[in-house]
Amino acid sequence: MRSIAVNPALNAYADLLRKWNQTINLVSAADLDVLWPRHIEDSLQLGALATPTPSRAIDLGSGAGFPGLILAIAFGIEVDLIEQDQRKAAFLREAAMVTKAPVRVHATKIERANVPPAPLVVSRALAPLPHLFRFAHPFIAEGGYCLFPKSAAVDIELAAAAKRWTMDVARFPSKTDPAGVILRVENLRPKA
Q: According to the model, what pLDDT value does residue 6 have?
């Protein structure tokens, strides 16, 4: 993943994030020193799991652009970024302009976003799986899938989600968090 780290657009994004972080809380101040491994490389690893590379993706609760904006910059995937915080949405628009990333920013609540379904839905640190599945389900195109980085509590979240959802789940170890996994979720359906 370090080879992507020399991507000029990713470097421009990181510089812009550091600048904006002085006035709005995009990441914790302590995370600025570990911005690449903790946030950027953590997001980049989803690109390797997005196979075949989708034509479009939706990022729910984009925040500072992890992982959706990073995927757009590094892999050229068109991404709809949904972020209700107006200040963070302004940052995403600026970052998209600076990096020339193929994204559209939707400054609204996820439930109100008027975005057509996509082959890939991503989200990072937004909500536990039962809620995340509720948010994601309307946005998954037929035959599409989700990629969700999760922490060590993933088994508890999956058990809770299984009470209301059926799904096929594949787990991939995180390359940036020894206790973390990335879930690839397909065939997500609410139980009757």
A: 65
Mean of pLDDT values over 104-128 = 97
Q: Residue 77: which domain range?
A: 4-190
Sheet holding 118-122, edge to edge: 103-106, 78-82, 56-60, 118-122, 140-150, 181-190, 165-173
- 24: domain CATH number? 3.40.50.150
pLDDT at 7 over 80: yes
Q: How confident is the model over 177-191, as a mean pLDDT?
A: 96
- pLDDT tens for 31-77 read 888 898 889 999 999 999 998 889 999 999 999 999 999 999 999 99
Give DSSP secondary structure letters for the chain: -TTGGG-HHHHHHHHHHHHHTTTS-SS-GGGGGGHIIIIIHHHHHHHHHS-SPPSEEEEES-TTTTTHHHHHHHH--EEEEE---HHHHHHHHHHHHHHT--EEEE-S-GGG-----EEEEE-SSSS-HHHHHHHHGGGEEEEEEEEEEE-TTHHHHHHHHTTTEEEEEEEEE-SS-TT-EEEEEEEEEE--
